[in-house]
Design goal:
mainly alpha; about 170 residues; 7 helices
Amino acid sequence: MEKYLVRWSVRIAMLLYVFALARGLQRGQEPGESDRPGRYTWTLGCLVFLVHVAAAFHFQHQWSHQLAMQHTAQEAERVFGWAFGEGIYFSYAFTLFWFLDVVWMWFNGEARRQRARWIPVVLHVFLLTIVINGAIIFATGPVRWVGLLMLGVLAYCWFSGRSNPRQVPQLADS
């Protein structure tokens, strides 16, 4: 049962991540920027991912950073031929950045919408890189194919959303 909780929580979180990001890309916005379903999807995806992290640490790593690092090293060696346990820090950063973005969205959405354009670009390039690693590079079988399909959907949404740039609000005349 624990194995299913770990696997399915991350799968559901990634589907929610892709759905929220795809909605934002099609609208020329960030996930949840001015769209209630997107906001809830972005938040729910993050919360389900936090469940995944807690389940993985509880059931697979016995709340040990060292065991998580060893597991990451084993997976890196399986895929790349060399052990790199420090890759766990990228997973920690992914979790922290997504969580902080959700908190920022809920508690100071206006400042989040007005942040420098490079911030969400860097954020989403990083998040998507980690998603691609987890859903395509380190995945096998049908999960990899679903990951490739999700990446294709995001690419389609990005290209189709480029013709729908973010609208700048017009200032009313005084």
